[in-house]
Amino acid sequence: MKLSNALTSGALVAHAAAATSGDFTILTMNVAGLPAILNPNGVPGGKEASAKTIGSKFAQYGYDVIHMQEVSYVFRHDVLERESGGFG
């Protein structure tokens, strides 16, 4: 393990240990982002329009953690990232 990783990990553990109470919100959602050949969805506007709507809702409700299911590597992550404010 690199020294920087060890220091970061140590800082995270110390921070986590210091938190004794609090709240956070978690959302898990199947965003149906598989390629159309596998899952066409039949939604007006297509997958890009759906991604914009989903991303704007993610940003609107300010979840702390979002787990997205069925996000394909060939899908346009740039659309979701632009509409939600980014991942990471």
* Quaternary organisation of the protein chains: single chain
Q: Secondary-structure element sequence?
A: HEHEH
Reading side by side through the largest sheet, how are the strands ordered? 1-2
| Strand runs, count | 2
- Put simply, the count of helices is 3
Relative helix content: 40-55%
> Average pLDDT, to the nearest integer?
71
Largest sheet: 2 strands, parallel
Layout: helices, strands, pairs:
Blueprint: H1 3-18, E1 26-33, H2 46-61, E2 65-71, H3 77-84
Parallel strand pairs: 1-2
Helix pairs in contact: 2-3
Could you please describe the fold and organization of this structure?
The protein has 88 residues and is of the alpha+beta class. The chain has one domain. 45% of the residues lie in helices and 17% in strands. It is built from 3 helices and 2 strands. The protein has a two-stranded parallel ribbon. Strand 1, helix 2 and strand 2 (65-71) form a beta-alpha-beta unit. The longest helix is centred in the N-terminal third of the chain and has 16 residues, at 3-18. The two termini are 21 Å apart. This is Endonuclease/exonuclease/phosphatase domain-containing protein.
Provide a quick synopsis of the model:
By secondary structure, the protein is an alpha+beta fold.
